[in-house]
Amino acid sequence: MRVLHVDPERGWGGGEVQVMALLGELGRRGHASRVAAHPDGPLARAATAAGVPVIPLAVANHVDIGAALRLRRALGDAEVVHFHTARAHALAPLCRRAGVRLVVTRRMDYVPAGGPYVRFLYNRAVDAVVAISEGVREALVRVGVRRDRIRVVPSGIEPAAGVAPAGARAALRREWEVGDDAVLVLVVGALERRKGHAVLLDAARRLSPAALGLRYVFCGDGSEAGALAEAAAPLGGAVCFAGFRRDVAACLAAADVVVLPSLREGLGVAALEAMAASRPLAASRVGGLAEVVVHEETGLLVPPGDPAALATALARLAGDRALRARLGDAGRARVLARYTSAQMAEGTLACYRGEP
User: Could you say which of 3.40.50.1980, 1.10.10.60, 3.40.50.2000, 3.20.20.80 is the CATH number of the domain covering 159-338?
Assistant: First the structure.
C-alpha cells in the first residue's frame, strides 16, 4: 500500500511520535510511505533520518488554499492520504481523487469548534476517521460526526521504549541534583495550560517537599514556561525545569513517580511511555488518560484541576515504595497487552482498507 502522511506542524509532540512509530511499522510490513511535513520542522528531519521521503509542505493556516493545491499536486500514486493534525485535515477537501482513500486522525478530546463546516470535514471531506480513544470519539460524536465513520485506534509505543541506557538514572539525578533518597516526581510534556502544570505546582505547595523527600522535574517547553517558573519560585530548589528532552527513557529511569495533571488529553503518549518504563502514574481522570490508567492498578487517578486531590495522591505514592513498584509493574504489563505500536499499525491499516 502506498501512503502519503500529512503533518505540517513546526513543533514536536506526542502526535509526531506516533507518526514516526506508524512509519516504522508500515515499513516493516512492506508498505511505502511518504511524509508531507514542514521543511524546517523536526518531523521532516526525523523522517529523513529514517529513510522516509519527505515532501516539503508549509501551511500558514486552516484556509491556506495554496498549500492544499501543492499537496494535491504531490499526491502522485498514493492510495491513501492520512491527515494527522487539524491543520492537515483542513487541506482534505482539495485532495479528493478517484482511487485515493482519505483518512484523518483526531487526537484531542475536546469538541471541535466550527459547526457545519467541521461536520463536513469529518463526514464528507474524508472517508474515515481514526480516534485515539473512546473519549475522542465521543467528543466527535457530540459535534455531529457520524459514529459509524469513526474507528478507535489507541496510540501505541515500542515495547522497548521504556528501556534506558545503563547508568542513566544515576547520571540524570546527578545532573538535576536529586539525591538517592529523594522521590523524583517527573512531568513530561509541553508547558501549555491544557497540560495542567500549574495544578501540579499548586499541589506541591500544599505538601512539604522536604519532609516527604519530594523533588519535581519538568521536561518540556512552551508558552507557559515563564509563568510556571514564577509559580514555582516559592518551592525553591525542590523544582527543576529541565527544558525539552529527547532522552525520554533516561528521564523516566531517573523518576520515581510520573505525573500527568492534564486538563484535557486525547490519550497521552507520555502515560504509555511511563508505564512501559514501569513507573507509577498520578494522572487526571480526563479524556483518554482515564482509559489508559486503571485507578489503583496502574496508577492513581484524580479529578482534573484539583490540586488537593493530586497532593493526596503524591503524598501516598511518596510514602509507599511497595505501592509504586506494584503500580509500575502492572502498568508495563498493560502497555504490552494493549498499547503497542504494532497494534496501533494494525488498527490503522484496517482503517486504510475500509474494514469495519
Answer: 3.40.50.2000
